[in-house]
TrEMBL record:
Signal peptide: none annotated. The keyword Endoplasmic reticulum does not apply. The chain crosses the membrane at residues 6-24, 93-112. Keywords: Membrane, Transmembrane, Transmembrane helix. The gene is spoVAE. It comes from Bacillus timonensis. It comes from the Bacteria. This is Stage V sporulation protein AE.
């Protein structure tokens, strides 16, 4: 059942994104930003962690999880270090993913030629 719920929840998040493209005619940037903000809001209200417990990778793989990570890290560090922790916490939790994206993007740019 774990795989079923991961597939269902992850698929539902993707369906919401596709509806935003097709019905509301939002650009990819607007859709991406909206999903990140929704993930952040859900974490702010304490609703995203139960979703992760329920759906596993279905909730941690989509972009909504990035918003969750930003808020979660900021809140954890704010408890320890106050206002400075809000800023450092966001970067501490998400830095490995962002760093990986930069490194792999650079490797891709070096190894492959764009069509044009």
């Amino acid at each position: 059942m774990t795989y079923f719920w991961a597939f269902t929840v992850g698929g539902l998040i993707c369906v919401i994104g596709q509806i935003m493209f097709d019905v509301f005619k939002l650009t990819p940037g607007h859709t991406l930003s909206t999903l990140v903000v929704v993930g952040a809001i859900l974490d702010g209200f304490g609703l995203y962690e139960p979703l992760i417990d329920f759906a596993g990778a279905g909730a941690t793989v989509p972009i909504t999880s990035f918003g969750n990570s930003l808020v979660h890290g900021a809140m954890q560090e704010a408890e320890k270090h106050g206002l400075v922790g809000v800023l450092t916490g966001m970067f501490e939790v998400t830095s490995s993913g962002i760093s990986a994206a930069i490194v792999f993007g650079m490797l891709g740019a070096l190894l492959f030629k764009p069509k044009g």
